[in-house]
Amino acid sequence: MVRALGRAEVAAAAFVLTLGPLVLTNDLNAAHVLFAFVLLPVAVLHGVAIAADPVGATTLRRLPRSIVLIAVTAYLLALTLASAMQPDAPPRLIRRLLQFDLEIIAFVAATALLTATSRQFLRLASLGLAAVVAASALVNVAVFLPTLPADAAALLGWRLMAVLGMPEYANSTNIGATYAVVLAIAVAAMATLARTRAEVTVLAVATVILAVALVLTQARGPAAGAVCALAALAATQSHRIRLAVAAGGLLLVAVLVATPLGQDWIERGMSYRPEVWTTFLAKAAERPLLGWGVHTDLTVTIPSGLALDQAHNLVLSGLVRGGAGAAVAMAVILVGGLAWSIRLVRAGGSPLPLCAMITMTVAGMVDYNLLITRPAWPWLTFWLPIGLAAGAELAVHADRHRHDDEHDEPETDEGAVAIRALQR
Fold first, then answer.
1. Coil, helix or strand for 351?
2. How far apart are the C-alpha atoms of 375 and 346, rounded to whole Å?
3. Are 323 and 287 in contact (CB under 8 A)?
4. Residue 64, Cβ neighbours under 10 Å: how many?
5. Is residue 337 in a domain?
6. Residue 265, SS3?
């Protein structure tokens, strides 16, 4: 019974079922309940199922020592401590933050363990996730396109927003980041994990839908992240796939350049980013050690007169909200996640975690802040790529253990961990 419920197929279904309501409904409660009563128990059962395998047991023991996971824990605790130290922090808020801390850590750990121990999980979860997010994006695009303005100049303010999904995070910049991350996952899965023509077709259709939706959001940071991820993916593939990815990227760029949208993106340049960053650096300097906490209103007016409430940079936002500890932890998450994902690719594993991390990191360093929430948009957009990167770290360590110990150990789907589990 435990082995059946801990199978990769069940875990992938639980994963997609849990994250699906974030894009297919406008309710946050469903994802929260499903995480607690479906995904988390299935991930635990998966851990039990692989514990009998020597390499699987090693991966389980390695999980608490994951550098990425430790950095995630440090980041969350730094934000929570900073919030608790504010004189106006209600006890109920701190209790909620601690609860969400544990849930986020559990989600990252579950994603890492499932990713590192089953190629089947990674393939099916990527396929299902791409399908549900693309379905949500298709509905949003279908509702949005009839509002096309007659005046071409008005296109610059014509930005896709979500009417379905992304509850509380439905604005263009937010959904653009999600579409970009899942777009990178879909293309990487199509190039390296898909087994059948049907899977390739689903992923290809999802890629087209997500690319259109991403362009319509006019979210430049996510678009840049997706392009960087595609470039990295192309570098890891055969000449044929490299040409296909390059052609897709060039087509996307050509469409942008040929429209008023692309011209506007170029003209807007850095969009006040230097002013934003220097202004929030000054704000961080007022409380450099502990920060301002997650609940404090940090709206500032930059010299250009624009009022903003976040630093548009993940590391700087960590510094402002959680102090030096949070900033260092976030830097370790990003650098460590990228480094382990690169090591996985060099060892012959899937580039999917790397593509997700590149997209998230590029977008996150020019926009966004990452706060402590229940299952919501940040989980799908940020904690998912981080969990995949932690899985890459576990996979690399497990592969090293396999080579150091027995080379002829029989493998099962649950026990075939690490590089072999994530191989193309």
1. coil
2. 33
3. yes
4. 10
5. yes
6. helix
Q: Is residue 59 part of a domain?
A: no
Instruction: Give Cα 42 distance to the centre of its chain.
Output: 21
* Tokens found for residue 92: 């109920």
Q: Torsions phi, psi of 290, nearest 5?
A: -110, -20
Residue 96 domain-assigned (yes or no): yes
Q: Where are the alpha helices (DSSP H) in 161-196?
A: 172-192
Say if residues 351 and 148 touch (Cβ distance below 8 Å): no
**Tens of pLDDT along 117-175?**
988 999 999 999 999 999 999 999 999 999 988 776 677 778 999 999 999 999 999 99
Proportion of the chain in helix, strand, coil states, percent, rounded to 5: 75, 0, 25
Nearest Cα to 172, choosing from 208, 226, 222?
Answer: 222
pLDDT tens-place string over residues 35-94: 999 999 999 999 998 888 887 888 999 999 999 999 999 999 999 999 999 988 899 999
Q: Which of 135, 116, 138 is nearest to 53 (CA)?
A: 116
How far is the C-alpha of 58 from the C-alpha of 44, rounded, in Å? Answer: 15
Could you tell me which residue, 249 or 401, shows the higher pLDDT?
Answer: 249
Contacts of 7 (CB under 8 A, 6+ apart): 46, 49, 413, 414
Among the listed residues 169, 110, 104, the one whose alpha carbon sits nearest the alpha carbon of residue 368 = 169
Total count of domains within the chain = 1
Q: Average per-residue pLDDT in the chain? A: 88
Considering the domain boundaries, does residue 420 fall inside one?
A: no
Euclidean distance between CA atoms 186 and 206, whole angstroms = 7
Q: Which of 144, 159, 143, 216 is nearest to 183 (CA)?
A: 216
Measured torsion, CA atoms of residues 9, 11, 16, 19, in degrees rounded to the nearest 10: 180
Structure tokens at 249: 């990227």
pLDDT in tens, 345-372: 999 899 999 999 999 999 999 989 999 9
Helical (H) or strand (E) element with 123: helix 119-144
**DSSP annotation of 59:** H
Q: How far apart are CA 380 and CA 212, in angstroms?
A: 19
Its domain, for residue 373, covers 7-52+67-398
Q: How many CA atoms, within 13 angstroms, populate the side-chain half-sphere of residue 382?
A: 25
